[in-house]
Amino acid sequence: MRPPRALAAARLVSQLDEFIHASRLGGASLGEGKWVFSFVMTDPHSQYIERRLEFTRLLDPALVERGVLQHFFVSPVRPVKPLHPRDIRAAWQRLRADIRAERTPELLSLYVHIPFCAHRCRYCIYYSVAAEGLDQVETYLKRLHDEIDYYASGLSGVEFCNCYIGGGTPTVLQEAHLEQLLTHLERAFVRKRGGEWSFECNPATVTEAKAELFRDHGFNRVSFGVQSLSPKVLAGVGRGYQTRRQVVETIRIMRRCNFWINVDLIHGLPGQTSTSLLESVEELLALEPTQVTIYGLSPYTPMTLEPDDRESLSQLAPRVNALARTFGYACLDWATCLELNRNSFRPSGGLERSPPRITNLLIAEHKRYGMLGGYNDTTVEPFSLLGLGPTARSYVYGQLQYTSNRDPVDVPWMPDVAQAVGRSLDMDEERRRFVVAGLERPDGLDPVEYEALFGEPLEDHFGQELSCGVERGLLETVQDRIQRKPQEPEARFAATLLFVDDPTLDLALKDLAGAQSGPNASGEDLSGGGDRARAGADLALVLYTHGQEVVVHLTDHWPGRQSYHHKGDFAFFLPSTLPEGSCESGTQNAKLLATFTRVFDRVVVRESPTDLQDLHRLLLARTGR
Ligand SMILES: C[S@@+](CC[C@H](N)C(=O)[O-])C[C@H]1O[C@@H](n2cnc3c(N)ncnc32)[C@H](O)[C@@H]1O
Ligand code: SF4
Predict the structure, then answer these.
(1) Which domain holds residue 584?
(2) What is the C-alpha separation between 515 and 461, in angstroms, rounded?
(3) Least confident of 93-107, 334-348, 502-516
(4) Structural domain includes residue 141
(5) Is residue 104 located within the same domain as residue 158?
(6) Which of 62, 341, 432, 438 could be joined to 299 by an S-S link, Cβ 3.0–4.6 Å?
(7) Confidence (pTM)
């Protein structure tokens, strides 16, 4: 018989075991004659969530605000490698075969980049230069036409649902050039009926004739920037030329063409206050565009960002929403912007009714053919996206994701040289991307849509993540859709992170460590945290201009880094120490870099350097003092 003390101990141990089992904590051990308990945290949910909360805490709050989709899927943290046009075209050909065999959804988008602007704005993250004469524009168009022909030949017979001609500023092109481009596109690609055909313009460069040209080529949507209606704010960002009159006139022209009209504003510009932003919103809504998009200033802006204690865009959202309602607009709160639509948004997606005073053909078309969906360069599934021109993003569903090189505008199309960096995609990532994009929608993730697309219930693949999210109060079901429960940006980010797998999170953490110790690279918003990181120099080269010097860092290992420019197997970077504005088009530095880029391309393509040392030697011979 056991002594009473031992009985009590046995009871305690069994109670503890129950407790441990119920709370899913790890094992306990009882020492001989003394009470020693050790608990091992083995709850997979706790560890899984802790890692995600820890990652969120480490990330720059500006990146947290922009969401998981941007951070992990648009600008992937996974390594990328140089891609040759033949490999890219082969992926598109496989997609065409899959579409024909009905193995993949037939939803394709087209993007065409026009890298010219009349003036560069200081905040802008997109790649463009001030056009230096007609020759340069014609050389670029020739390159673009060659690129179009190259890929169109692999996609014959496939229909595109939507098209977006962006930049830059497409309306900087003269009418004759626009006509050539639009005709070329029309001949090269088949257009699905009822799709969205969209172009960008700038209020200072649009004319009625150019707008009509787009309309006559079947375009039905326009998007242009206003950014602010405050002359002081505009002057501070190099956009002081824009007048209120131009904005009013642009909307009038676009309405006459019966376009769906989107106008952009930016929150967070220097000198802007919450009041001046709300005034701009109000003035703009009074002009009755179809849609107003208010972007949060991107953390990748080339401007120096002052520490900022004004209200964030999500804090301002309720006031914007109230204002929008008084004008008959509904406000959608996306991760990177607030979107005000003249049409109410149904939870099932899609547009409900046309606005009372504007006959918008597009809405009728959408209704008649079912919503095909508009262009979105963050590619909310299941679209594939063919991007043409430097810095364009592309996405071959289930196969490949890539970004075209940031080539100077007068480099011809070279099908034998790597023209992009990218990586392959698989169906596991497609599922995760779909779920993440769904959770970041204002109305949440639709499990029915998921099942229709992937042929299995959401729980089959994500049962653990879902139960973990619900148990910890991070996810909830509202009207059959799955939404994130918390309101704070950090907790919402962590809730979405449940659907990012551990190996990807490991890479992101490694990347973050690199970003915190290494220099930042300059550039446009083609990168997430991943691409900003690890811009370590391999070999430096100093260029001189008018007594000043610019250091470029040469490398043959840039996957995952943001490069200023790459060609073939080599790339070069700019250090973050360049003074602000020193690379703006027209400055000595910009001219020097443009010349250097040409020399760099020529050396890489014609002299085929064997390694970095060889490239360094060849470049030194051509550029050294
Ligand atoms: C490619 S630009 C084309 C706009 C057109 N060229 C114009 O200026 O009217 C599209 C939009 O990107 C947005 N954008 C550019 N830089 C940005 C930044 N740093 N942060 C947030 N949005 C930005 C602007 O709102 C702009 O209207
Ligand atoms: S906002 Fe428009 S006009 Fe200004 S630099 Fe960017 S693309 Fe050009």
Answers:
(1) 535-623
(2) 33
(3) 334-348
(4) yes
(5) yes
(6) 62
(7) 0.78
